Amino acid sequence: MALYLALFRGINVSGKNIIKMESLRKQMEHTGYTNVQTYIQSGNVVFEAKQTSKAEISAAIESLIKKEYAYDITVFVLDMADMNKVAVKSPYATREELEEGSKKLYVTFLSQVPQKENIQKLYDAPIGDDLIELKDDILYFKLASKASDSKLSNNLIESKLKLKATTRNWNTTIKLLAMLEKSKK
């Protein structure tokens, strides 16, 4: 069995696409995934699977969500190597640096590496003093102020890059990596 992390795009946000994590955990176990653990309500699941293709696992979980909850949700499936890469490549924080108080550091997971012309569209977007840096299929950003003041949103990122994205704050990203490491032992 291989260990994975699934990040669900757009569930339990602003009262839309509501899925209770306990229900999701049970549905995934019923489908054959094991050692299923959820973290907070925004759709983060660590689990083991017999399959080794992240694309196949993603498609299977998306199908499960469609069948059980009638939502068209994009699911990003990552493994330990992917998450270690995310932590190491961050230009704004190290793995050991967790934010105190207001959260300003974020990681956006992209469905693929964006095309060059679309990358430039994102860099040209009116995002004020917020900082962004793209590394392969991961966008890191550091907000100048609080998230509610920022023009940098998941919708803006998706519209400029022309692909699907899901965003987690730095603390959540590091917590999910720690959950993977703990589950591997």
TrEMBL record:
Pfam entry (one): DUF1697
InterPro entries recorded: DUF1697
Protein's name according to its UniProt entry: DUF1697 domain-containing protein
